[in-house]
Fold:
Amino acid sequence: MKKLKFACADYTFPLLPHDSVLSVIALLDCKGVDIGLFSRRSHLTPETEFQQPANRAKLLRQKLEDRGLVATDVYLQLDTDFYPHAINHPEKSRRQLARDGFLKLVEYASELGADHITCLPGMIFPGEERNASIQRCYEELSWRLETVASSGLVFAIEVHIGCPFINPSDTQILLESVPGLTLTLDYTHYIYDGYAQKNVDPFLQNTSHFHARGGKERQLQTIMSENIIDYSAIARKLKSANYNGWIGLEYIWTEWEKCNQADNISETILLKNIMQEAYEN
Structure:
């Protein structure tokens, strides 16, 4: 029987050296690794990796292969603050910096052997009409889709708390306004803001990568015993849809949003087992 393809984020275990993180992921019987390139807050950062994208990617690829792993997504965030390097920044020079970073991401991911990349969708900027910010999001996302068209990479965005598309109706409008755009779908962001699971389910058809962890309203990450997201139902929906992407198990450990209250190894195993069992039965 076909099984779900599980990956684990390399930023799930920030207290370990990166080489050890990769070894732990292999021990968890996850064959994929979601690589986080988060400015100043992940093991690997744009500041370090983009100095020599091809060389750094080759080095990481060898480390993955040595452990029987593959890169399943490369997620780029150019700043800890979502505004200064937002893809739709009002200043053209800032938008160009974001584009330059994206081009390096494409080079890096291609050399790494990944087939999927994720970025943030943009922000609403104070002092201007919402529609102006939104239209620039559409333009910049369309440029990114055109840029990767010949690369073999799938480009997706993650709708996250604080972004202009967190209302499911706005997510739907985004997908209709940028044809070909896919999602790295994470229910926890929607659930955090009080939206029901049934309002998020339709986006599974637009999903090219999936993030999974426990969550509930006003708490972005929970242990599985407190989780209110029905991952068994999601696994069955993915099976019915013949989803062929990866499930990225994405427990994190940071003070932000109190995401440091879980035993990430145990919760990752519990969630993986829940989804796989539902998928097989």
